Amino acid sequence: MPSHILQETAVRYFLEVVKAGSIKDAALRLNVASSAVSRQVARLESDLDTLLFERHARGMVPNAAGELLAAHAKRALQDIERVTGDIAALRGLRSGYVRVASAEGFAFDFIPSLIARFREKYEGIRFHLDVCSQSDIAKRVRDGDADVGITLSSVPEPGIKLELRYPSPILAVMASDHPLAKQRQLSLSQVVAYPLALPLQDSSVRQLLDISCGRQGLQYASPMSSNHADALVSFAAAGGGGIAFYGELSIRTRLLSKALVAIPLRDREMNERYLEVETLAGRALPEAGKAFVQFLTDAIKATG
């Protein structure tokens, strides 16, 4: 294949169409005219003498050739990033760019604080933190949209290298004057007597709670649900007997005020959750990414 075919602009526009699913949405993300994206894709197909997409009324899906090109292009971009990082390392890791995809609970305090501490040593490293649903994080890593994924999971993901898998039990979070606040450990049979503030059903907290309650024949009332984890904690902190669920790392800063307490649960399902630090299997991260992964995993292990 002639090297001029895979020019940077054409491939970048092509990959954006693959991700967005349409010319129009790709153009919006790229902040260019739709006609410019369409021309680049058409030129790429002409140069390669093959169609790259199946075109439907509602969008575009890469065909077998498109998927092959997308996989190649992503690897090529990752190689460029790695080499750039290696060159930066020769100057003492004074520059670099790390893309992090994180579940919401870690994005409020834990990850931003770690990034700030990391930059005290490597102030030239830039970060982008993308807050995603737990189900999307492994996909972001596999698709090359994130260098590092930080999520909560109970099952391994294909194509993902686990840099760290660390226990992250679910705690019952409540106001410090709650009737249960003085207990050292609780069972769900005690907790479900109070109003629960819960995340959406696709979250690990909700899934494990429902499994445990189903096994024990327990029923609960949830007067508030939200896709914003911190809102659930604020509901519990406001009093009125409300209880939310969170991991210790995610709520550590809020516990310092003493307005909240977080109590371990003895039910086995509520302890079968793991914090995962994920990277793409088979990929050599740029030096900045490798350094941050090491910093991140050391910080998590130090909490034990």
Give a description of the structure.
- Strands 4-3-5-12-6 form a five-stranded mixed β-sheet, sandwiched between helices.
- Residues 1-6 have low confidence and may be disordered.
- The chain is elongated.
- It contains twelve helices and twelve strands.
- It is of the alpha/beta class and 304 residues long.
- The longest helix is centred in the first third of the chain and has 27 residues, at 64-90.
Give a quick summary of the entry:
With 304 residues, the chain is of the alpha/beta class. The chain has helices at 8-20, 23-30, 34-48, 64-90, 104-107, 110-121, 134-142, 188-191, 204-216, 229-237, 248-255, 287-301; strands spanning 53-56, 59-62, 96-103, 125-132, 148-153, 160-167, 171-175, 197-198, 224-225, 244-246, 260-264, 274-280.
CATH class (first level) name of the largest domain = Alpha Beta
Q: Under the CATH scheme, which architecture of the largest domain would be assigned? A: 3-Layer(aba) Sandwich
**Overall 3D shape:** elongated
**Helix/sheet category:** alpha/beta
Order of adjacent strands in the largest pleated sheet? 4-3-5-12-6
CATH homologous group name of the largest domain? Periplasmic binding protein-like II
CATH topology of the largest domain: D-Maltodextrin-Binding Protein, domain 2
The number of helices is 12
| Secondary-structure element order, N to C | HHHEEHEHHEHEEEHEHEHEHEEH
Task: Report the helical percentage.
Answer: 40-55%
Biggest β-sheet description:
5 strands, mixed
Distance between the termini: 52 Å
